[in-house]
Design a protein that fits this description.
The structure is a homodimer. Chain A has helices at about 60-70, 90-95, 110-120, 120-125, 140, 170-180, 195-210, 245-250, 260-270, 275-280, and strands at about 5-10, 15-25, 30-40, 40-45, 50-55, 80-85, 100-105, 130-135, 150-155, 180-190, 215-220, 230-235. With about 280 residues, chain A is an alpha/beta fold. The longest helix of chain A is centred in the last third of the chain and has 17 residues, at about 195-210. In chain A, the strands form two sheets. A seven-stranded mixed β-sheet of chain A has the order 8-7-6-9-10-12-11, sandwiched between helices. In chain A, strands 1-2-3-4-5 form a five-stranded antiparallel β-sheet. In chain A, about 30% of the residues lie in helices and about 30% in strands. The interface between A and B is large, with 40 and 40 residues. Strand 2 of chain A pairs antiparallel with strand 2 of chain B. Chains A, B: Belongs to the spermidine/spermine synthase family. Chains A, B: Its EC number is 2.5.1.16. Chains A, B: GO terms for molecular function: spermidine synthase activity.
Chain lengths: ~280, ~280
């Protein structure tokens, strides 16, 4: 018997991974969570049949969603993570001694439970004393909050299901208010390559641009996400992710990273022309 | 009936593309050449069951294999292309009025014939008057040549079958000799992500480093190649691809490109730590 996990990138494009065994499956109030052991990628966490993280390359996503804002502003002390139930984003954040407080708001406790059981590689710092876990709706959590967080990271699923509200103008506006004077908002922002993903990215970028004075998009090579070309949004009240980067200061911290470095930080904001054009014109 | 083209990235990872119809198949003296019409990627050219180019994203590969060396040295006049039977590399080169002579050496005439018939998008400039086509073995072609080419582009298949000899020390040494004083060698250099590909990349990089004083690796997002994270080798006698880039000069040419721009040129050389480490230590 052969067991294969297959993700449909479009109706006519599929990515398939041979599975040793299924380790976990549960349908929560919000979504279906599965964990597989695979030959190539080690353990694989999926939500509603989409790859969230794999042991082999989770470091790429988590490096890029945390170290880019942290290097842009090394004075960040208070962080809100929305989503990120696997814990990888929190793990990277806890490496900064300067961070005093991390609120993590994950709507689905089952994702955290599954990760604690099968993904210690990412969930290992969820009990750090600076971390407060809230199993709540992130959209409601930010409502009414003012001037509290130096950084908000939206580590969400795709904009379908429970993740949908995390891609709305109202949510971004509430994030703006919840941020301090030099606040930064980072969000995972889909791929520019397949039409449905790209259109979500374009929509999200447009909304963010209308609210934040600085709104940029950056990219990473994540082989287990559709197309392998993945984007993140960087929105900010004051600091520019390239012009205000103090590379020396970040390098002096001596953090070892497998993907991120400060040259790559700058390079990640140099988008291909076709992606820049998409964002500027709003057309795929 | 459903027709799917499937490429095995490893024994346990597959990428599948739904096909409208097969347009062409021929087994030449060297390899099997197929052309498919697909829903997502338009036409698809494969050699021995591996994606060479698709209509949807060939521009990424061809932009990165030509404009990076051309922007580094805008005085390039004489170019040798080895492989590249689809014509896309030659198409991009012919956009430079300053190039006087392009020799293209493709071992397999069948690839050119198939491309002329089905890939006018890439083959459209093969009859440019500056282009000389040689259906010969590129390895033998460079033997004994001295101080002739300002740029050699190795636009090869993977290092199995007829492409194998294009990844040897002897071949790189002959390229060095065939190059002029400021000569540049660019080669497609596999992916860093899957073990077999990465090991080829490491081997090739090491050999090139032993011969050329400047040897760098750069990357691009090519969604239809394994992992989507693709590398190119840049080797040079004198010019450094980042330090010697005159971005203004290239931008003054006014060439429209869908992927390449001079910021991205610099960013492409900012490799992730795990890739840098692989190249430095020689270990996957």
């Amino acid at each position: 018997m052969e067991l294969w996990y297959t993700e449909n990138y479009t109706d006519t494009v599929k990515f398939s991974i041979k599975v040793k065994e299924q380790l976990y499956t549960k349908t929560s109030q919000f979504q279906q969570i599965d964990v597989f052991d695979t030959y190539e990628f080690g353990k694989l966490l999926t939500i509603d049949g989409l790859v969230m993280i794999t042991e082999k390359d989770e470091f790429i996503y988590h490096d890029m969603i945390t170290h880019v804002p942290m290097a842009t502003n090394p004075n960040i002390k208070s962080v809100l993570v929305i989503g990120g139930g696997d814990g990888g984003t929190v793990r990277e954040l806890t490496r900064y001694k300067t961070i005093e407080k991390i609120d993590m708001v994950e709507i689905d406790k089952v994702v955290v439970d599954a990760s604690r059981e099968h993904f210690q590689i990412t969930a290992c710092k969820l009990d750090d004393e600076r971390v407060s876990l809230y199993f709540e709706d992130g959209i409601k959590f930010v409502e009414g909050k003012e001037n509290i967080y130096d950084l908000i990271i939206v580590d969400s699923t795709d904009p379908i299901g429970p993740g949908e509200g995390l891609f709305t103008t109202e949510f971004y506006r509430n994030c703006y208010k919840a941020l301090t004077e030099e606040g930064i908002l980072v969000n995972q922002n889909e791929s520019p390559y397949y039409e449905a993903d790209a259109k979500e990215m374009i929509r999200a970028s447009k909304k963010i641009k209308n609210i934040f004075p600085i709104a940029e998009v950056y990219q990473a090579h994540i082989p287990t996400y559709p197309s392998g070309h993945w984007l993140f949004g960087f929105a900010s009240k004051k600091l520019h992710p390239v012009k205000d980067l103090d590379a020396q200061k970040w390098n002096d911290l001596g953090l070892k990273t497998k993907y991120y470095n400060t040259d790559l930080h700058v390079g990640a904001f140099a988008l291909p022309n076709y992606v820049k054009e998409m964002i500027e014109t709003g057309a795929f």
